[in-house]
Amino acid sequence: TWKWVVGPMFLYLCERLVRFWRSQQKVVITKVVIHPFKTIELQMMKKGFKMEVGQYIFVKCPAVSKLEWHPFTLTSAPEEDYFSIHVRIVGDWTEGLFNACGCDKQEFQEAWKLPKIAVDGPFGTASEDVFSYETVMLVGAGIGVTPFASVLKSVWYKYCHDATNLKLKKIYFYWLCRDTHAFEWFADLLQSLEAQMQERNNAEFLSYNIYLTGWDEFQATHFAVHHEEEKDVITGLKQKTLYGRPNWENEFKTIAGQHPGSRIGVFLCGPEGLADTLNKQSISNSEADPRGVHFIFNKENF
């Protein structure tokens, strides 16, 4: 038995030593941004830190807890000179981080007053493969949209600097939220992308659909008077917010019809139930013919 135990234990101890060494490296918080609905953005810098889109890190704040590590998806792009995470205040630890960063105070906080942060990572996820396809479907549910913030930012940087070498040609983005509050911090990024794509006469590059799942059409009738306005009354985007849940069978069939003979990457960050639905649709809408359309499903659950 000891022969089978020693090997894994040795590897585990090596992993813990590497993690301890990485956690001791200095991390500097360069900016703290307070977004609506008690969501804060931490922009940080660390010597030698390299990331890819959609990756995540473990974060420890000794001022809050000396032992707790919490995973957060990186929302910055690799092309930016900092890395960032968005933290929604939903528990004791996040509330402690919120207060430690001085977000509960009205006055401006000096950088030297910000707490020390330990970072371990980054670690890979399925979203890293998004640039391996010409066509992708990105599906985010609630705060599960964070990895796609990194993807969309990186796509924009690559598109601006060297669009000819960018294999990715079409993005279908779906965002499902229960209430309007979750839209507020991410809608700014979509508005920026929407405006910049229109300036370059390539508005078709990004096709996005935002679903407010906590409402139905009856509850949304008082917004109907604003439907003919140029921008959506909730998000401020040209694309109108949809109510209820998407009909995934219709969405997959429509995309398959528009991209015959393609390998389409389907990326999800969301609950297990939605993952099962998208996996079944990916299988049922893929053709048996190798030359036909194929949906390749990738997921990360929370």
What's the CATH first level of the largest domain?
A: Alpha Beta
Give the overall average pLDDT.
78
Largest sheet: 6 strands, parallel
Quote the distance from N terminus to C terminus. Answer: 36 Å
Element string (H = helix, E = strand): HEEEEEHEEHEHEEHEHE
* Strand portion: 25-35%
What strand order characterises the main sheet?
Answer: 10-9-8-7-11-12
CATH architecture of the largest domain: 3-Layer(aba) Sandwich
Q: Count every helix, treating DSSP H or I runs of 4 or more residues as helices.
A: 6
Helix content: 25-40%
Low-confidence runs (pLDDT<50, min 5 residues)? 222-227, 232-236
- The total number of structural domains is 2
The CATH superfamily of the largest domain turns out to be Nucleotide-binding domain of ferredoxin-NADP reductase (FNR) module
Helix/strand-derived category reads alpha/beta
| C-alpha Rg (nearest Å) | 21 Å
The dominant shape is globular
For the secondary structure, the number of strands is: 12
In the CATH hierarchy, the third-tier topology of the largest domain is known as: Rossmann fold
